[in-house]
Amino acid sequence: MNDDAGALDPELISFRSAAASVLMSVDFTAATLTALRHRVQAAVRGAGLAGDEGYEFVLAVHELATNAVRHGGGHGHLELRRQDDVLICEISDHGAATGSLPVRLPAADVVGGRGLWLAHQLSEGLLLTRGPHGVTATVTACLNPAER
Predict the structure, then answer these.
(1) What is the CATH number of the domain that holds 40?
(2) pLDDT at 132
(3) What sign does the dihedral 15-17-20-26 (CA atoms) show?
(4) What's the pLDDT at 46?
(5) pLDDT value of residue 100
(6) Does residue 126 form part of some domain?
(7) Sign of the dihedral through C-alpha 69, 73, 74, 79
(8) Phi-psi region at 124: left, alpha or beta (left = phi > 0; alpha = psi -120 to 50)
(9) Is residue 1 in some structural domain?
(10) Domain count, the chain
(11) What DSSP character marks residue 105?
(12) How far apart (Å, rounded) are the C-alpha atoms in residues 23 and 44?
């Protein structure tokens, strides 16, 4: 085993790179969720993701932003980037990142608890990162869905 066996290439584990362009970076609260959704929708459409794919990505982002408000301290931060032909949206909050982060469909008789599951279903990918200051949820969408 060599010395680099445990090292991870930062480019492989990060969605950030010099080629990524920030389309939007904004703090939000419960009072601004509707306006945030409209801004995300305009930015996503402007980036070239329209139709059902655009609608589903915006809905995934909205679910995650709502979760940040409900479970993450009442506010959060959203950053939407474009890297090549991929949209990347990170939603961060300052919630007490304890317990599990269920990305499964709860029983039909359970009220709520579907936000992460919906975000996962409606996007190309969902990554949840728990840190000392809260949780970051990252969703992605391919701008050329027919070429997946």
Answers:
(1) 3.30.565.10
(2) 84
(3) positive
(4) 96
(5) 58
(6) yes
(7) negative
(8) alpha
(9) no
(10) 1
(11) P
(12) 9
Q: Is residue 15 part of a domain?
A: no
pLDDT value for 136: 93
Dihedrals phi, psi of 14, to nearest 5 degrees: -125, 140
| Domain boundaries, position 120 | 30-147
CA–CA gap between residue 101 and residue 62 (Å, rounded): 17
Structure tokens at 31: 């009072």
Nearest to 139 by CA among 99, 88, 71, 97: 88
The confidence score (pLDDT) of residue 107 equals 61
Instruction: Evaluate whether residue 16 is within a structural domain.
Output: no
Kindly state the tokens that stand for 30.
């419960």
Provide the whole-model pTM. Answer: 0.79
| Cβ 141 vs Cβ 49: under 8 Å | yes
**Chunked mean pLDDT (size 10), the chain, 148 residues:** 42 53 97 98 96 96 94 93 96 75 60 74 89 90 72
CB 65 within 8 A of CB 78: yes
- Are 137 and 119 a contacting pair, CB within 8 Å? yes
Q: Which of 118, 41, 114, 115 is nearest to 78 (CA)?
A: 41
Strand ranges of the sheet holding 21-29, from the earlier edge strand across to the other edge:
21-29, 75-83, 86-93, 134-142, 125-131
The token duo for 67 is 């979760």
